[in-house]
Fold these 3 entries.
Entry 1:
Amino acid sequence: MKKYLLICILFFSSFASNAEELIADENITEQLDCFRSIFSDYDSWRSFIESQRKKRIKSTEKLAKGMAQFDSMFGEHKFNHYRQNLSCITFKYQVDGLDIDGYLIKPKSPNKKALPVLVYNRGGNGSFGSVVFGSMMHNLFPIANEGFVIIGSQYRQSSSKDILLDEFGGKDVNDVTELLKYIPKIKNADSNRIGMFGASRGGMQTFLAARHSKIIKAIATIASPTDLLKELDFRPEMEKVFVHRIPNYEKNKIAELEKRSVLKWVDQLPHDVPILLLHGENDKRVPVNSSIELAAALSKNEIPHKLVVYPRDDHGLMNNKAAANEELVSWFEKYL
């Protein structure tokens, strides 16, 4: 995750601005425009990022290079295009008695045509990996702009280090499945065409949510862990996350990890829901074999799927972002 995305999160959530009510349900509260505060125009966003970087980057040359990269990734023309063509809100909803943050992105759809819906599951854990404005623009706006409604959860989080709510594939999966019941209340959303996709830990969430769902028609994952025990061999430092997040982990390590590992129960996935697997060959966080082995298991269980491995690419598919987005859009256009 880029540092500027993390810097933005407090500002993204702290300035209120009324937005059009895109979800007509009284249980959805605080529907606020994403294009608010420092995100109301490109110059104010860029100026904020630059001011934050100046505090830690003393070299004028390095600062200029960093801002050039920022402009290359985002840019005023792209920003204005999305602001003109997309509606975007953040909102709150309740799950298990907890207030959960969510977000919704959709084309403004002047023709009022009902659009397919994608539920997006983010990576990370706790507040790390939260979907802030920069990650929306980089990862989700391009897909929504192709004619999809995208809704997602930030998962249950806590402001206290003594209270851990995110169980990394435990009760927090409810935060994903609860969103499904609100889809019929979204303006111009086609509740008969629902897909789901996720990146990294979000891929795990996707499989856990899709396991028992009867309304998800197609799914896709990007660099998803599929066997958490094997991931520990590849990346031992993940055990700190597991110990911190997963209840009763130290007493029931194997059982808890297998609950979250789709390779252990792939036969329980819906056999009529096609699955797209995207992965970078040089992923240093989740081994590419995670997707390769899942593809083999899907074949064995006769579950329709497609595996795409990007040579020499990383966890975020940074070298093939446009190609990966094309794969996602084509997949969901075909099956939704």
Entry 2:
Amino acid sequence: MALTESNEFKLGSKAPDFTLINTIDDKEYSLNQLKGEKGTVIMFICNHCPFVIHVNTELVKMANEFQEKGIKFIAISSNEIENYPQDAPKYMKEVAENLNYPFPYLFDETQQVAKAYDAACTPDFYVFDAGLNAVYHGQLDDSRPGNSAPLNGKDIRKALHNLLEHKDNLANQKPSMGCGIKWK
């Protein structure tokens, strides 16, 4: 696995709109249908990446905590599935059900959504305010598979608390790192 860093996403940028199929219920949803009242976290993830597998428990925990506060979470997989069949929608649904994802797990078959966000890796995290303006793009925390840093979501948690408390967000946003998105 090649370690890939997230690309820059200009803070203040509007979240690119999309409509995708949620693999959990096989229904189509737009960003406007899924966004949160106070903010939205968009995560590019996949089934097979060790970096995503490493953070899955924290993603579920964080989503359950912050969705009660008006922050919605949206997971998107944009990996091509011919060479990575474990990332196909039927397996996405299995992973979501097995891990009790409290958020939709959308499939970006054309990869147009990943391109619109300039997503580079899994996981790749974006936090938007109530108006869908970017306030954070970076890592979950310092934890990686095989290191001893605690898995606690501290960077995104701080960004979400700042958003809810109407404070300026982190000036130094460390890029996320993980497996590169598998492009067609």
Entry 3:
Amino acid sequence: MRLGKIGLTLLTLGLLYHSVFAAPDTAAAWRQLLASTLSGEGRGPVLAALALVPLNWGLEAWKWQRLAQHLEPGHSFGRSFRAVLLGLTLGFATPNRVGDYAARILELHARRRLEAVGAVFLGRYAQLVATVLAGGAGLLYFLFAFYLGGYPAAQVGVAVAAALVGAAALLPLYRSRLLLAALALLKPLRRFRRYLAVMPTYTAGELHAVLAISFFRYIMFCGQFLLLLYAYGVRTPLGPAVAAVAGTFLFKSLVPSLNALADVGVRELSATHLFGLLGQPVLPVLSASLSLWVINIALPSALGLLLLPGLRVLRERKSR
């Protein structure tokens, strides 16, 4: 499995290099684009996208606070925000971002840490549901506009299939007992049941709130991407641009990666392809996508390094 992920990452980066960097004079054109953007009218949208970073991760902290309060009443927003930043930092280099789980779990009291695994999974799954629902709608636009325009029967079939996929994505969120029953039937996955056993204890109201926050955060992320695209000179009608952004996020979420660094390539290749269908040049789209990764992942991860000494498990070890 791990070798497969490494191979997929290398293949993605290779395809990205072939489609962008193998072209002549790419470096010079990129330097000119960055210089003109940061010194011209693109500076305002870049600063606006940067200003939305605290709100973006603040929404994630709010979501984690709602989930953590179910396990530990009185869990504060400050502790949640610290756990999110620490999780981003530790997940930056760990396989499958397990560091994100570790940081949030270790910020809770020891007696609830086993249940916290399910709470973290629930929050991440709610974010995936938002990505799948919005991304599915975005991909439907491209399928109808570029591939299935003359095939109405195929359009109906694809739309029905997309609706079924959306319903299937929602099912484990609101019917988690079915998920636990399915895990019990699959021997290799039975060991995960005890970690996810907390999921059915969340009420429908709590799940609605978590899903709503996930959608707000998704909208925030899309808004940042659109601002950066505009800053680098991408001029596409809003509807198709939103569909391309949604499709990009869906591809990035569904393709397995080793860590946050390995995500660089999956999103960029998807974005350049979808916006290429809309007639947009590669370099501005690539620049916007990489800038999104830098301001939303790399910079907050660096900030999280400052909070690492305050991790609860380290404080508990020092107090002994």
